[in-house]
């Protein structure tokens, strides 16, 4: 494959059906749900060994930029670009922004569009499908990957294959897209053959996609061009212009282009694919014991059958249960019938209506400098445990409504308080009065751990006024 292949990795999405592990500030694509790597990392790792494959373009929500950057850095991967969406506008504008960036330098490069949260178990089969899709994309066609169905699924859209594309075996022109069918139609598709699950992965040249988008949805292309033209560089990120991107219509690649183009093609793919869309999908793809159970973490099973059980913070014992999903974290527990796993999204919507926080973040919240964990909270006080990574530090900031007391547990802290700077070691502490400019830094090569006690009339994270920040958050 001598020509360039540029992966475009779509890192958006909330993964609400995988609550309580997946949350708004730490959605499923940044979690290790299948292997020891996160789903995003697995997506990048499976690209290794593809001839001509260049560095990826990542498109992501601005709230997750440091998470994505750190996870790619852990793999020693330097992305071609990291595009920040100021607001979600679905996949068509996201891919259009990536295509515009690539087309400015390589209009004939093939874009390989991949969601960051899918599972592909058979990597060699994936590589073979990509090579075939790239060859067809170079003919000017817009290619999608059709997953060979293994059962009459009702949770996926389908693609009906049309005329074969010679000489590429297993490649077809697209006859039509079919919305998620009922059980009877899904069974008929499986029996008839010639239908594939819509896997949400694509291959096309940057120029071909942009030409079809201009023909079919020119308003999307125009708004995205404006967002790119007025984009701002932010550290290693490219931040799309908020006003221009907000004016862009929200639509998927399927609805905006693929279902309307006459240049669509589908490549048959049998590669152990799953969209990891629910806990039942993880049960389907997981290693089951003799009773059909899948267990992760500190789990004991007694006379249980066909259950998915995951323990994140504590021991979980299951006795006499069948066909359940049980997922435990340090602040929430989900128990659900496995055949109703899709309805977990409704649980999250209910939590949102009740203005609760369990669907927003875990007790451990990651920041570019490290993380903090909420240990205890009550009226006018909150206790957190902070970890500051070596060589990192918090912004120079102040709080209008709260004071803070820091106690170093281990490591060495460099503390700026007003006009004074001091070094604190293990068991030493300092007090930050309300309205005082301050900064916490770890200038050593070892992690810094400390306890922070907040007190005051308001303890929300939005009571932060930043004056200087190495991460560009001022």
Question: Radius of gyration, Cα only, in angstroms?
Answer: 25 Å
* Class inferred from helices and paired strands: alpha/beta
Give helix % range: 10-25%
Question: Can you count the helices?
Answer: 11
Strand content: 25-35%
Spatial strand arrangement across the major sheet: 20-21-22-29-24-27
CATH class of the largest domain: Alpha Beta
- What's the domain count? 3
Q: What shape does the CA trace take?
A: globular
Cα(first) to Cα(last) distance is 44 Å
Mean pLDDT: 95
Main beta-sheet strand count, sense and barrel state: 6 strands, antiparallel
Number of strands: 30
Ranges with pLDDT <50 over ≥5 residues?
Answer: none
CATH topology of the largest domain: Spore Coat Polysaccharide Biosynthesis Protein SpsA, Chain A
CATH superfamily of the largest domain: Spore Coat Polysaccharide Biosynthesis Protein SpsA, Chain A
Give the second-level CATH assignment, the architecture of the largest domain.
Answer: Alpha-Beta Complex
Explain what this protein looks like in three dimensions:
By secondary structure, the chain is α/β, with parallel strands linked by helices. The chain folds into three domains: 5-274, Spore Coat Polysaccharide Biosynthesis Protein SpsA, Chain A (Alpha-Beta Complex), CATH 3.90.550.10; 279-351, no CATH class; 364-468, Jelly Rolls (Sandwich), CATH 2.60.120.10. It has eleven helices and 30 strands. The strands form seven sheets. The protein has a six-stranded antiparallel β-sheet, with no helix packed on it. A hairpin with a 2-residue loop joins β21 (370-378) and β22. It is globular, with a radius of gyration of 25 Å. The model has no long low-confidence stretch (mean pLDDT 95).
